[in-house]
Amino acid sequence: MFKGLLAVLGLAFAVHAQAAPSIPDALIHAQAQMIQDVHATALDWKVGDSASYNLNIGGFIKGTMVMSVSSIGADGIWMEQDADLGFAGKQQIQTLIDPNTGAIKKVIANGQEQQVPKQDLEVIDTKEEKITVPAGTFDSIHVTAHDKASSQSGNIEVWLNPQQVPVGGTLKQQAPTQYGTMEIDLTSFKKN
Asked: Could you read off the pLDDT of 121-178 as tens digits, one per residue?
């Protein structure tokens, strides 16, 4: 159970932004980190699975993000993250994931391959609780963690329900970034 929780937690941090020269770069870095530690048991994904979110970065950058499974083939699982950050621009990230190990094989942002960053997550606390987000009210596992590899101070909080919500199970997440706290809230999802 704890191993599975860590796998899903790793995936939830895909939108956790680290220090980076731009907001789009922060999203690239974040998605790669989250998927890196996902194990095969957490990858019960189907083509078309998706989760949509509201994004709020530092209270001044607001937008939306959709994470979806675009294809599953011999080379692995392709996951897409499309973010619209309003005046800060749009970002499309494609990630190829090994379905047997959960390892990231490749990250492509706006057509250019990116280096996969490392992470060192330390789980501080976990507890069960109900949470309400725009998509509804859910039972969740509330995890507080710290990324020791990050230059950002502060803890990351994520509310998960991987049994009900596809592509990682994130219902809500709050994480420190160089632009202030990044918050995402689930608005809708589709599970095939």
From this structure: 788 888 999 999 999 999 999 988 887 777 667 888 989 888 888 887 889 998 888 8
Closest CA to 79 of 9, 15, 158: 15
Whether this prediction's pTM lies above 0.85 is answered by: no
CA distance 67 to 41: 19
Q: What are phi and psi of 164, to 5 degrees?
A: -105, -35
- Residue 159 bridge partners (DSSP): 142, 172
Which residue segments constitute the domains of the chain, with CATH numbers given?
A: 2-190 (2.50.20)
Residue 65: per-residue pLDDT: 92
From the list 189, 192, 152, 159, the residue with the least C-alpha distance to 174 is 159
Q: How far is CA 101 from CA 79, 90, 147, 173, in A?
A: 15, 30, 21, 25
Query: CB-based contacts of 100: which residues, under 8 Å, 6+ apart?
Result: 40
